[in-house]
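User: Hi! I'm working on a homework problem where we have to compare a predicted structure to a textbook description. Could you give me the structure for the chain below?
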Amino acid sequence: MNNDKEEQILRKRFMDLARAAENKGVCSYTDFLNLSETGVFYSMRNVMPNVNYDLFGGYTGAERKVLCFYGDNSVKAFSDYITCIRILPLNIKFSDDLNHRDFLGALMNLGIERNKVGDILVKEKEGYVFCETIISRFIIDTLDKVKRTSIRCEIMDKDAPEVQPEFQEILGSVSSARLDSIIALAFQTSRNSILGLISGGKVYVDGKSVESNSYMLKEEETVSVRGFGKFIYKGMQNQTKKGRYYVILSKYV
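Assistant: Happy to help. Predicted structure tokens:
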């Protein structure tokens, strides 16, 4: 986070929620945290009260997550706190080509704060919005258009299959599994252009800020780059005659 005052407020909020869970034996929740905010929490875990916690965004692999502190191991921390809303065109034949920005913009136009909404997944012309349950009915009752497309909303019930993002497989050769090399391959850019992003705190590995370009990625680690997107490093396949390595990435689309 760039603003020291905002970070101090966030740290105090984490501490207050953890103490409430410890002292009162209740679940205490944050709003949806972005990667930078999650990184602040990870940086202070060693000074937190001895209380259970979990991070979840509604599905496996979510980027924006809610942090829950709880004192009882039997508690299902997120059973009712996060809801997934499916948004679909009334007439798909005449629908605009809708993307993440379109769905997010439509929600923000309702006056909803960004931290009340988690990830938004787009499949063809449908959107799947993860939000705090407390605002789900407002979205369903109020949202009727995305861009110029008339839509309807429905809650994904608990028996619905888990919504998963789609991936593009990338295969390429690199000199090593260094973070800068792999990011350059993922987004088809030069290593030099990546260095400023890494040193500027815009790169996260499994939700934790990494500012060393020489960090060696491990299989199944997820890399998020602000302004570019994210991918999963699947690992090396084999070595070329010139000593380079073929690697596989699964890039979120």
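For your comparison, note the following. The radius of gyration is 20 Å. The longest strand covers residues 229-239. Good luck with the assignment!
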